[in-house]
Amino acid sequence: MKTTIEHSSMTDKEIVKGCLKNSPDAQKALFERFSGRMMTLCLRYTGDQEDARDVLQEGFIKVFEKLNQFSGKGALGGWISTVMVNTALIHLRKKKREGYSTAVDEEYNLASSEVDVLSQLSANELMDLIQAMPTGYRT
Questions:
Q1: Res 29: pLDDT
Q2: Residue 2 belongs to some domain of the structure
Q3: Which of 21, 23, 27, 66 is least surrounded by CB atoms within 10 angstroms?
């Protein structure tokens, strides 16, 4: 029969050792101990609940992947906070780039539709439109 470890009684050092050995109990303990604080941090950076959850998930994946790089000199919570902040900043930069890309695509689509309208005009209609323009704009 499997014994369950009381998560709250584990020290940070024990949790790290367990996580490095891929112990599900230790991984659960680490997540339960720090997820609340880290969610608050992620929400502060993203300003959006859904984005904060995404950053939290991405951040904890990085924490588990890079936990062997934790030196143990500082507080585990501080190290995890640094990982979360960096993950949030990367997420925000990526989201900003995607927003810029979308704006450029929309601008291109508008320009393309204007070209389509012009190509559908007959030569006479185009000449009439040019003649209707003020003299300084007809060049």
A1: 96
A2: no
A3: 21
